[in-house]
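Pasting as-is:
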Amino acid sequence: MSQFDLQKRVSLLERIHALPIWHGAITTQPLTGGITNVNYLVQDSRGKFVARAGADIPLHQVMRFNELAASRAAHAAGLSPAVVHAEDDLTVLEFIESRTLTEEDVRDPAMLPRVLDLVKSCHRDVSGHLRGPALVFWVFHVIRDYAATLQDKDSPHAAAASELADTGNMLEQAAGPFDIVFGHNDLLCGNFLDDGHRLWLIDFDYAGFNSPLFDLGGLASNNGLSQAQEQWLLETYFEAPVSDDLLHRYSAMKCASLLRETMWSMVSEITSEIDFDYAAYTAGNLARFRAALDDFQNT
């Protein structure tokens, strides 16, 4: 860690210690695994909490007012831990004694129905608890904006940006017409917690109104669901047999989800200060995207 990064960490810890919500002395411990925010486990005399540090990231369409509103609404809907405190770029959340799911966990036939129930509840219940302005997460706009950012910042991936944006435009035409729900929009396995009794959904950085097919496609592609599991996912979610039209639109949106994750990582390679191998993450997701696009165009 550079001297500059060390000073930033010290300053952040000083700010966490100075929050007016603690009862007695606190201890802090870094929580690893986050690839967008810096998180600390904080303990005071009452119990444990998670302190999240993260300013607005317009390059990734992340606006903290939106994340805070979604987090509070998701808690009110019974899906997520409570927001204990929020000020500036710091948010303190209730800590849940739990384990984070892995991709294998999500694929487990015993776990997948529980995961889908949580996603359906997010789509069905959270919007009724939202207060204040709320954002749309339109993945095709995000792809176009990422392409422009890669070119503006002379990214090593700039030469491919126009092709990727054109592919996003093609997928946008193929994925409609669109239903709209309030989506989580970042269904990585790490955003599901299991406390031994129930599941929790966390990290609403990218939450917003969107097609339900984006979350379903993201859930499948991020966690390596089989083709049979994807069929089950669609039948169970929509409570009806899967038509050829729905399967076509879903496949297009799954490709868009993978393309967005790939370009998120490409932009993060040149902008993020978090110690994470974004280049390897880009390569893995680009391969997944190319394979899904090939299937989509040849089916």
